[in-house]
Write a structure and sequence with these properties.
By secondary structure, the protein is mainly alpha-helical. 54% of the residues lie in helices and 7% in strands. Bound molecules: tryptophanyl-5'AMP.
């Protein structure tokens, strides 16, 4: 609790271009939860270097992601928006927690297996302990709730296990967090292969809608989206391409799948696809305009970076000092 409010933590990697999946699965829920909770939203740049990055590019993307959080509507006066690398407590707590995490647990993580297969030439220790750093992010702020897409659920479960294990040994040190997964949009699939999630790192640009795509590109990608040969619009696992389009439509319009199916009753895919495109364009347009405006305001973004890093550090240090005492590190002499 901070000032009587429960705490929320979430983050995104500044790796690749953000997709509609990131927006609908995470960022959109951040906006709806932000009044109710004391929120920490991090640009998790420590996580990004588990895969090789071009330094200048990473710095640029990190700033643009931080700006995007604000452009999406998160007020940095009320929400703590900061770079993970500006708060050394993340790395320090991660080390401690890694001593309370088993190799077997990390070996079971599907994201590690996927990434290790994709980057077979660079299976570094950071990639393996990535979920411990994620647990540190969350536990450092004593977060009650963590809004994420479905793909992060396994990491959340591990975080809870680590917190409970630590608490069993040392008393109630950590709040055990709950995941928050939205009803619609928690798993947006690729437009080219609806059996796979829409991903920043997909090599086929037609598979993903990027948040900065212009309206023509968005429309073109939806028109090319892979569907099926059934020709009727139902919300069913048997029609994953159509189901994905309906999910996107519903997440953007606030309609339920039943309402959407009714709306397109008797209509063909040729009508559904542009309607989804239009819905996405109207959600992304204000975001893109605000992004353009904010990117030009260097002094403002710099002040957000500075002030929020100080705030995040303050709360991070409170937890870190407590944990250091609990595990037996000597007190500092002042
Ligand atoms: P990242 O950067 O891959 O994704 C950011 C958020 O977007 C969600 N997401 C999706 N949701 C729906 N459909 C999709 N296709 C889709 N793709 C991505 C993700 O679930 C995530 O919520 N490890 C995390 C970042 C992280 C973090 C944390 C998150 C680091 N520390 C602590 C929460 C709490 C990641 O790589 O997310």
């Amino acid at each position: 609790m901070i000032d009587g409010k429960k705490v929320l933590f979430s983050g995104m990697q500044a790796t690749g271009n953000l997709t509609l999946g990131n927006y609908l699965g995470a960022l959109k829920n951040w906006l709806t939860l932000s009044d109710e909770y004391e929120c920490f939203y991090s640009v998790v740049d420590l996580h990004s270097i588990t895969v090789r990055q071009n330094p200048a590019e990473l710095r640029k993307r990190a700033r643009s992601l931080l700006t995007l959080y604000i452009a999406a509507g998160l007020d940095p006066k009320k929400n703590c928006i900061y770079y993970q690398s500006h708060v050394s407590g993340h790395a320090e707590l991660s080390w401690i927690l890694s001593c309370f995490t088993y190799m077997g647990e990390l070996n079971r993580m599907t994201q590690f297996k996927d990434k290790a297969a994709k980057h077979a030439d660079n299976i570094n220790a950071g990639l393996f302990t990535y979920p411990v750093l994620m647990a540190a992010d969350i536990l450092l702020y004593q977060a009650d709730v963590v809004p994420v897409g479905v793909d992060q659920m396994q990491h959340l479960e591990l975080t809870r296990n680590i917190a409970e294990r630590f608490n069993n040994i040392y008393g109630d040190v950590f709040t055990v967090p709950e995941a928050y997964v939205g009803k619609v949009g928690a798993k947006i699939m690729s437009l080219q292969d609806p059996s796979r999630k829409m991903s920043k790192s997909d090599e086929n640009p037609n598979a993903s809608i990027y948040l900065m795509d212009d309206p023509d590109t968005i429309m073109r990608k939806f028109k090319r989206a892979v569907t099926d040969s059934e020709g009727c619009i139902r919300y069913s696992e048997q029609q994953p391409g159509i189901k994905n389009l309906l999910d996107i439509y519903c997440a953007c319009t606030g309609k339920t799948p039943q309402e959407a199916v009714k709306e397109f009753e008797g209509k063909g895919y040729g009508e559904l696809k542009p309607a989804v495109g239009e819905a996405v364009i109207s959600v992304l347009r204000p975001l893109q305009e605000e992004m353009k405006r904010l990117s030009g305001d260097k002094a403002y973004i710099d002040s957000v970076i500075k002030e929020n890093a100080e705030k995040a550090n303050y709360y991070a240090m409170k937890t870190l000092r407590k944990v250091q005492r609990k595990v037996g590190f000597p007190d500092r002499i002042r």
